[in-house]
Every structure is written in structure tokens, then in C-alpha cells.
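Input record, target 12 of the design panel.
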């Protein structure tokens, strides 16, 4: 009987950077961009970890953004700007 060594596959570097970079990007841009653009762009950045169709990525991004809006802004009432000063918004 022949024994084979187990060798786990390492995640591709692109996926590693996307998953680690997404929350860092969110934290760095939430005040400047505002909640909605920060969530949407963070979701897009995290989606680089997977190889999916663009339509699927955009649908997931829209769904997560709406879900976060409903839960954190309306549900929990967090005092966050939906659109930030970097986008020329005053509120």
C-alpha cells in the first residue's frame, strides 16, 4: 500500500489580498465615502477573491449593500453618513 502525503492547496495570492484588503479598505473609507459607497466597493473588492461572472458579482454587491442599509442604518439606527464628504455631499 502506497502512502501519499497530504499537501493542502494554498489560496491564490489575489484571493488572499482581496479578503485581507477588503475590511482594511472599508475602515479607511467609511468616513470619507460614506456608508453606501464603502459597503459597495468593499463587496466588489472582496469579490475579486472568487472567479464569478460580473452579473453575479453586481447582484451580490447590490444585495449586500441593501441588506447592510436595512440592518445597520434603519434597523439599528447607527448614526452614519450614507454618502460622505469625498463625494461632495454635505450630510
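The sequence produced for target 12 reads:
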Amino acid at each position: 500500500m502506497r502512502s501519499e502525503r497530504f499537501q493542502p492547496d494554498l489560496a491564490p495570492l489575489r484571493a488572499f489580498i482581496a479578503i485581507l484588503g477588503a475590511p482594511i479598505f472599508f475602515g479607511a473609507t467609511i468616513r470619507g465615502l460614506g456608508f453606501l459607497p464603502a459597503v459597495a466597493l468593499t463587496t466588489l473588492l472582496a469579490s475579486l477573491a472568487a472567479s464569478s461572472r460580473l452579473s453575479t458579482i453586481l447582484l451580490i454587491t447590490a444585495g449586500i449593500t441593501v441588506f447592510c442599509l436595512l440592518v445597520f442604518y434603519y434597523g439599528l439606527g447607527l448614526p452614519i453618513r450614507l454618502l460622505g464628504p469625498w463625494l461632495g455631499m454635505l450630510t
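The chain has a mean pLDDT of 88.
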